[in-house]
Design a protein that fits this description.
369 residues; mainly alpha; Herpes Virus-1; Leucine-rich Repeat Variant; 66% helix
C-alpha cells in the first residue's frame, strides 16, 4: 500500500513528494528542481506569494523537512490493513491507562500513527487530548518496540509548528535526550535524533534544545559511536540546532569538530555542512585549525563531494583561510585555488559564489607572499 504522505511534503509547484526541499527567500519550501526551473525561466517572484525576489535568489536546503520525509517511509506501517480503526478517544484511553497491556498499547500506537499520518486536524486534537504525556512515558519504556512506535508517533505529531512548541512545553526534549543516551535500539536513537530535527524547525526550540543538559552532547556521542543512519540523523539534527549561533560554541565544547572531521573524511558530506556552521564561531575555527589534516579533508570533499558537500567545504575553507594565514597557505599548496577556478562554471549558484569568494581570499594571500 502506498504511504499517504502529508500535504506539506509535496512541492507546491510539481505537487510531488519532495526529495530535495529548499527554502526560497520568501520563506516557502519547494523541490529544488521545480523552483530552479521557475527561476531559470526568468521569473523573479515567489510562485506562492507573487512578491518580488532578488536578482539571484538564495535556495536554502530544508534539512529538517528532508529528514522527516526520508524517515516517514521508514516507520513500519501498522499491520492493520484488514482491521477496522478504533475510536480515537478509546485509543488514547488505552495508551494512557496504567492497566493497559503491552499488546494493547502497541496496537493503539499503531493506529494513532496511522491516523496522525494523514490528518493534521487529528494531530492537533491528539496533542490537545493530553495523550502526549502517555506517549512520552512510552518513549522512556524499557520495551524497545514500544519506544520505537512512540518515537514514530512523536515524529508525526511534530509535523505541525504549533505541536512543535507544545511538545517541548510538555517535556519532550528530556525524554528524547534520554532515548539518545539510553541503551535502546539503533533505530530508536535515529528516530530520537529525527524528532529533535523536527522540533528545531521552530527558532525558539533551537535555543531550548541547545540549552538542555546533554542534548548536544548526546548528538555528538551518536555521531561518534552510532551506525550509518544514526550518524546521518545526528548530523542533520546538529545542523538544525546549530543554525542558532549560541549552539555552535556548545557543539565545539562537546568535542564535535574532530568527530565531524573524521566522519567527513570517511565520506559523510552531511558532517561538512555542520562544520560550515561551526566555522562561523571563533571556537570552531580554532578547533579546525588544530585538527591535523583539516585542509586535506576539506579539499577531498571539494573535489569529490556532493553538491552540498562541496558548497560547505568551500564555505568552511573560506572561514579558516580568513582566520589563519598558515591554513590559507596550506590550502594554496594543496591546489584549492585551481579547484575553485574549475568550480566557477558550476550549475549551483552557491558553489560558484563560495568558490569566487575563496579565490579572492587565496589570491590576496598569494600576492602578499
Amino acid at each position: 500500500m502506498e504511504a499517504q504522505f502529508p500535504e506539506d511534503f509535496r512541492c507546491p509547484i510539481s505537487l510531488e513528494i519532495m526529495s530535495d526541499p529548499v527554502i526560497l527567500c520568501s520563506g516557502h519550501t519547494f523541490e529544488r528542481a521545480s523552483i530552479q526551473r521557475w527561476l531559470d525561466a526568468g521569473h523573479r517572484t515567489c510562485p506562492i506569494t507573487k512578491l518580488p525576489l532578488p536578482e539571484y535568489p538564495s535556495l536554502i536546503p530544508n534539512h529538517a523537512l528532508r529528514s522527516l520525509i526520508s524517515n516517514y517511509a521508514l516507520v513500519s506501517p501498522p499491520k492493520l490493513h484488514h482491521q477496522p480503526l478504533g475510536e480515537p478517544q478509546a485509543l488514547i484511553t488505552t495508551l494512557s491507562s496504567p492497566s493497559s497491556t503491552l499488546d494493547s498499547k502497541l496496537d493503539s500506537l499503531d493506529q494513532l500513527i496511522r491516523l496522525s499520518k494523514r490528518d493534521a486536524a487529528f494531530r492537533s486534537k491528539l496533542t490537545d487530548s493530553g495523550v502526549v504525556t502517555a506517549v512520552l512515558r512510552c518513549v522512556g519504556s524499557n520495551d524497545l518496540i514500544l519506544q520505537e512506535k512512540a518515537l514514530s508517533l512523536l515524529i508525526n505529531l511534530s509535523l505541525d509548528d504549533d505541536n512543535k512548541l507544545g511538545l517541548v512545553a510538555e517535556g519532550a526534549i528530556g525524554q528524547i535526550v534520554t532515548a539518545l543516551l539510553g541503551g535502546g535500539s539503533s533505530n530508536c536513537r535515529a528516530l530520537a535524533a529525527t524528532v529533535l530535527t523536527s522540533l528545531a524547525v521552530v527558532d525558539v526550540n533551537k535555543a531550548t534544545i541547545g540549552a538542555y543538559p546533554y542534548a548536544i552532547w548526546a548528538l555528538v556521542s551518536l555521531l561518534k559511536d552510532g551506525k550509518g543512519r544514526e550518524k546521518r540523523e545526528a548530523a542533520t539534527a546538529l545542523y538544525a540546532i546549530c543554525l542558532f549561533p549560541d549552539n555552535r560554541r556548545r557543539a565545539v565544547q562537546c568535542g564535535a569538530v574532530p568527530i565531524l572531521m573524521r566522519i567527513a573524511d570517511s565520506g559523510l558530506d552531511r558532517s561538512v555542512e555542520v562544520l560550515g556552521l561551526l566555522g562561523k564561531c571563533k571556537e570552531g575555527r580554532e578547533e579546525m585549525v588544530n585538527f591535523n589534516g583539516c585542509v586535506r579533508v576539506l579539499v577531498r570533499v571539494s573535489k569529490n563531494g556532493s553538491s552540498r558537500g562541496i558548497q560547505y567545504a568551500l564555505l568552511t575553507l573560506n572561514s579558516l583561510c580568513c582566520y589563519n594565514e598558515a591554513t590559507c597557505l596550506e590550502a594554496i599548496k594543496q591546489g584549492v585555488l585551481e579547484i575553485c577556478i574549475g568550480l566557477l562554471d558550476d550549475d549551483n549558484e552557491k558553489i560558484r559564489r563560495n568558490a569566487s569568494n575563496l579565490i579572492q581570499v587565496l589570491s590576496g594571500n598569494y600576492s602578499m607572499r
